[in-house]
Amino acid sequence: MTARHVVINGKTKLYGLFADPVDHLQTPAAFNDLLAEMRLDSTFVPFHVSTEQLSVAIAGLKAIRNCPGFCVSLPHKKTVAELCDELMPNALACGVVNGVRFNAKRQLIGETFDGLGMLRAISLHRNLDTNSRVLLAGAGGVGRAIAVALALKGVGHLTIVNRTSDKARHLAETIQKAQPSCDVHTATACDVHRYDIIINATSVGMHEKDPLPIDLTGAQPGTLVAEVIMKPEQTQLLEVARSLSLDIVPGREMLTQQLKTMASYLGMCPESDII
User: Fold this and answer.
1) Which of 66, 71, 174, 243 has a CB 3.0–4.6 Å from the CB of 17, allowing a cystine?
2) pTM (two decimals)
3) 208 band by pLDDT with thresholds 50, 70 and 90
4) What is the pLDDT of residues 68-85, one digit of tens each?
5) Is the pLDDT of residue 236 over 90?
6) Which residues of 164-197 are buried (b: 16+ CB within 10 A; e: fewer)?
7) 33 exposed, middle or buried (CB, 10 Å; 0-12, 13-18, 19+)?
8) What pLDDT score does 274 carry?
9) CA-based Rg of the chain, rounded to a whole angstrom?
10) Active site residues
11) Distance CA 227, CA 218 (A)
């Protein structure tokens, strides 16, 4: 963690994260490290606000002119999406937001960045286009955001594998509505040799005795394996991928790219400064 002495002055910009509770949050520290690294005159704090007081708190924040925007965590992502004046494409398809910026009229413009973080992390290693064939395990909140981001990016083929078939089908319907050109399918199991990108968006792998979320047997050379889990940093899936000489994207890389993308969106810095 970067040591940082914050000097608050009349030009300091204020950012924050709405959540309930806030004790466990690591995002404020991560953002303050990023702000320190870039030597920006800004600070980021947690806002502990209940669901009942959320709209009141946001209304108050709108009046604070040196607050360009804020972040959102559980349990407020869906509620804040409903409070926004405008939703960006990913947020519109997912129905949740975790980043909101104020425009010149102090209207709320919301976007969701879980999927965009993974999209950017993968894009640093691999081009994503109509020729890309992606296998995604998991149709929960993070899986949904990743699937939407991939489809809106223009990925040609996406297969969603999930233990609950109804959940996967519902996500596939969302993808088809958001991006009809994406060829999307669902399955409860799948042969990995057909795909050039494989993503685990489940929680399987967080514990030592967890089974593999995806059997990588038969994966083609050059396949990229991406993980959303951050602890442990080297999950069993990534270890198997390494043993097969496959390319990998650890969960920590997804988080780093998510924070950088969100920082640009919130106006902390230009996009060119964080690449």
Assistant:
1) 71
2) 0.92
3) confident
4) 999 999 999 999 999 999
5) yes
6) eeebbeebbebbeebbeebebebeeebebeebbb
7) middle
8) 53
9) 19
10) 77
11) 19
| Superfamily of segment(s) 13-112 | Leucine Dehydrogenase, chain A, domain 1 (3.40.50.10860)
pLDDT digits (tens, 9 = 90+) for 104-163: 999 999 999 999 999 999 999 999 999 999 999 999 999 999 999 999 999 999 999 998
What is d(CA 235, CA 10) in angstroms, rounded to the nearest whole number?
45
- At the topology level, CATH places domain 115-251 in Rossmann fold (3.40.50)
The rounded distance, in Å, linking the Cα atoms of 207 and 13 is: 40
For 145, other C-beta atoms within 10 Å of its C-beta total: 27
Where do the structural domains in the chain lie, given as residue ranges?
13-112, 115-251
Report the Cα 116 to chain-centroid distance in Å: 5
pLDDT value at residue 3: 52
